[in-house]
Amino acid sequence: MGAGVVVLLLLLAGSYWMGTRKHVENTHETVEASITIPKDATVTAECADMRGKQYIIPKDIPMGPIYDVYQGKVVAMEYLIGQTELTKQSNMFANLSLPKVDYDHLTIMPMDPHAGENEVHFHAIAYLISQSEAAKIKCSGTSMDGMSGSQ
Fold this sequence. Notes:
With 151 residues, this protein is of the alpha+beta class. 19% of the residues lie in helices and 32% in strands.
């Protein structure tokens, strides 16, 4: 499983640096850093710790991209990768194109099965904000206060 994660990291990094920007038209919410949430995206979670409100285009479920939004700004782009898929298709992200913006860091989170995913899988999250800013996004309670520099 460790080799699969390394391959995934390399594919994501290579796709980011060599990929082409996918043009998105008809947006309903424009955000900082030229990333927009597509008009046909729907909310999948009102709040996810360290990521905020989550949007996805229904046809892209479950893989993504998921647009993680906090205080009206995209703070991360997220993809779900099934362990079985990654094992069978290690090049599944070879043509992935992330918007060409400055990403702060990439996090790979192993996840147990949950609604929509029946197997162990990974969340690959490309953050546009620092780890310390992401850590301030909390979902306990009704407000998501505390991220510096955003209003």
